[in-house]
Amino acid sequence: MIFTPKETLTEQEVKDGLNTVLKEGMTTEAMVTLAGGTFMVAFAIILGASNFQIGLLASLPTFTNIFQLLSVFLIRKYNNRRAVSVICCVLARIPMVLLGAMPFFFGDNAPVSLLLFFLFFYYFFGSVAGPSWNAWMKDLVPGDMLGAFFSKRSRYAQTLNVVLSIILAISIDYLRRHAPQYELYVYATMFMMAGIAGLAAVVLLARVPEPRSYLPNENILKMFVKPLRDKNFQRLLVFNSFWLFAVNIATPFFTVYMLKTLGLTLTYIIPLTILSQLSSIFTIGYWGKFADRYSNKTIISICAPLYVACVIAWCFVGIYTNLISNLALLAVIHIVSGSSNAGTNLALTNIGLKLAPSREAIVYLSVKNIITSVFSSLAPLIGGYLADYYTLRQLRVIAEWSGPNLQKTFRLLLLHEWNFLFLIGAVLTVVALQFLPRVREAGEVHKSVVKRIMRTSLRSNLRDYFVIDVLINWHSSLNNMLKSSRVSSDSGQQDN
């Protein structure tokens, strides 16, 4: 059979395969960026899509995850993950090329229903390819370098995403001002290029070797029930589902809040988004290294509370009308959330790979993706309902100072519409974290130990920077000064 797996792979084959996977990741990221959600929505609006159609467009990536069951069926029948991944990826990328070609045949009258038709198959075959790719990579990448490898792959991909997004945004904005009649065709060309880049990624993927896997000869329904009976994996599903639900109930509305409530333009929002991506790029390698050394669960227990703090901080954005103050707070939020999300997402992916038995990884990962996608898709719908509910409700917490020469009112907290939603999201993320300690991971180290080691590592890296060293050790220096002062005072009293 074509793409026949090998019983064993040599060290050189694994090394070459991993290098090819890195290149494939970059090419696939180019496709994802060119056909990005923001560009696709803008394209649909130009074609005259209704709000319902735009909502349907946004739901397709999550909805099609239920078809990951088909991936398990194909793997079980043919036991060839590379063939399933490659063939499904080809079938996914061709509709993107056809989607891009639509305006050249129909012009401005291209039907939105045809756009949704092509996108359905783009996401459908991508969903089928996903579990087979994940299980394939689990066996290809050595277990002790899962975190380091995928953090490196993600860092490269995000770097390309940032650079390409900036170029595309500037180009489209320039074209919209100077030649708006060509905007539709620019989007169409981008999507055709996305499909071509995706097909190029498939060529690279086909060159990656696959170690043979063995699936038990069981009833397929019994196979899907098995992960749900695995107590430890069950605990991971509960935490992962609850966490994604809590995160997605608020996160999709951050941009809406900045646009509608704060009145910020894309000139401010795009740099903030890039700032978050850069923070993720610079720290994901750090998280990957410590995840491999001390466990993924430990990284989650460190990064997740940082993200909770960021969600809470959103409640304080917009309290004052000063633009600079709001932008400064938003910058801090985006930097910290970018870093914490990088660690949390990397660790959640790796812990799923780690807890899934090698022979049944495809089944475990499919069950995990299907269940968590249900909660991920429900959260924004509930979040939108809650935002509407709190539209006419408001909570103000103020402090007043009254004196002979000064009377001042300070707004400490202002909750309305989106802020209520952010606070609810923060509370739910705190509740979700209560399920994390129940998950068991081999080799896990308590987070207090890892935090101490991370601080030591950071200090070691910064020891040549005097100012930073002073800032880190200022309390020790102050204590030493006070001790010296007391010793001098005591010796002076003894002399007297």
Element layout with pairings:
Elements: H1 11-34, H2 37-46, H3 51-63, H4 68-78, H5 81-106, H6 112-140, H7 146-178, H8 183-205, H9 220-229, H10 231-248, H11 254-261, H12 266-294, H13 296-314, H14 323-355, H15 361-389, E1 394-402, E2 407-416, H16 418-433, H17 447-461, H18 466-472, H19 474-495
Antiparallel strand pairs: 1-2
Helix pairs in contact: 1-7, 1-8, 3-6, 4-6, 4-15, 5-6, 5-8, 6-15, 7-12, 10-15, 10-16, 12-13, 12-14, 13-14, 13-16
Describe this structure in words.
With 496 residues, this protein is mainly alpha-helical. The chain has 3 domains: 1-213, MFS general substrate transporter like domains (Growth Hormone, Chain: A, Up-down Bundle); 231-443, Growth Hormone, Chain: A (Up-down Bundle); 446-490, no CATH class. The chain is built from 19 helices and 2 strands. It has helices at 11-34, 37-46, 51-63, 68-78, 81-106, 112-140, 146-178, 183-205, 220-229, 231-248, 254-261, 266-294, 296-314, 323-355, 361-389, 418-433, 447-461, 466-472, 474-495, and strands spanning 394-402, 407-416. Strands 1-2 form a two-stranded antiparallel sheet. Helix 6 (112-140) crosses helix 15. The chain starts with 10 loop residues before the first helix and ends with a helix. Mean pLDDT is 78; it is low at 460-478 and 491-496.
